[in-house]
Design goal:
With 450 residues, this protein is of the alpha/beta class. The chain has three domains: 143 residues, Rossmann fold (3-Layer(aba) Sandwich); 80 residues, Serine Threonine Protein Phosphatase 5, Tetratricopeptide repeat, CATH 1.25.40; 140 residues, DNA Cyclobutane Dipyrimidine Photolyase, subunit A, domain 3, CATH 1.10.579.10. The protein is 47% helix and 8% strand. The chain is built from 20 helices and six strands. It has a six-stranded mixed sheet with strand order 1-6-5-2-3-4, sandwiched between helices. Helix 6 packs across helix 12 and helix 15 packs parallel to helix 20. The longest helix has 21 residues. The protein is globular. The N and C termini lie far apart (47 Å).
Length: 450
Amino acid sequence: MIYQNRIKYADNKPVNLAGEYVLYWMEHSQRIKENTSLLYAIDSANKYNKPILVLFVLNPYSPYHNNRHFQYMLQGLSLLRKNLFAGGIQLHLDVGLPVDYVLEHSLKAVEVVGDVGYLREERRTRETLKTKLKVPFTLIESDVIVPVEFASDKEEYNARTIRSKLQDKVPLFLDKIEIPEVKVHSLDLEIKNSFSFYPPTGEFSKKLMINHNVKSVSYPSGEKWAYNTTKVFLTNGLSSYKMGKNLVADGYQSGLSPFLHYGQISPKRIANLAKEESSENVEVFLEQLIVRRELAYNFVWYNQNYDSFESLPDWAKKTLLEHSRDDRPYLYTHDQLESAETHDKYWNAAMKELLITGMMNGYMRMYWGKKILEWVPDPVEAYSIALHLNNIYGIDGFNPNSYAGIAWCFGMHDRPWKTRDVFGSVRYMNARGLERKYDMEAYLEYVDKL
């Protein structure tokens, strides 16, 4: 059943039959295919013989949004608006606090449908709307394969513990869904965007309060690109994935994290496409897509401190604080790190890759985070710096995967290792380990050409 266990919240407020449209407040699922929230809105619109209004609200007050993030997201939304319009669905864009605009547009709505939010502010917004909306409000979970609370009712210790819980549940949620035909048309709605919002210019750009200090990137954006990138990777890259998923030279990464971050493709669609492949590496890839990714969503859902040092397990916090006064051969400030001005050419290359492309090789991101811990004497400050740099510059930043990835560098979802200076019993990584496993000169050359 399409909606089985995907409806996270639904109230019993009376439907406003005099409403002009069904309102779908889109946030995480910025796509048409495999979008259960959109499917639910279409079913409701057809049921009540009403048009659909898709509302997207850009929040300029987010501490991490900047020119890079807005440009990337707006490029995808611009294409999405055209595709929705072709199907008789209108997308309206507003700039401000989401709760204000959802409430405003709900006054003429039959009911309101929304995507589930996982981070603190997103959940707070939804709690406010539950209280203030006068029409039915339904939240649907489309951006994980197994809904978080159905997967587990507590914070999981590591990948092993959540893997055992997901094993029998994943097949239940890999059903393939198609968006049905929209039987009603929304072109007669008076609410229209009279401007082109990509690229953002003029008054629209001013409303966004864009921070132009972080340059935009050329990485493709949008549902079509997400699908094409997935197919190219599965056709050409999957055969080398088991051997090369952590290689630092380009060509071995899936490149899907930005698309998943902005919901331009669903993990379920990727998983079903992968299962059509005969490669022996399918299960290795699905381990990352499903187990590791769903562990990250479990982390931010159940750990209220997910964006701070306090999120770590007690053993990790204790050992890091005990070793915070250990001698460190190198110390760097936030500004030096942000400028990639360290003695470590591999770390500098990883930081430059992030600065220039908004992306970083997965294995290098782990090394990158470990070195920040090593070079900043206060582990609490080190945690904060790693989060800030990743979230500001990464186009796949400030999402559950990012928060879990940074936390892993400090001991989350890992076990205690042999005690050593600075790291205590948290896992250590060094440059010699990189050189033993990978062609680091090739990586340096790759970054130099960016």
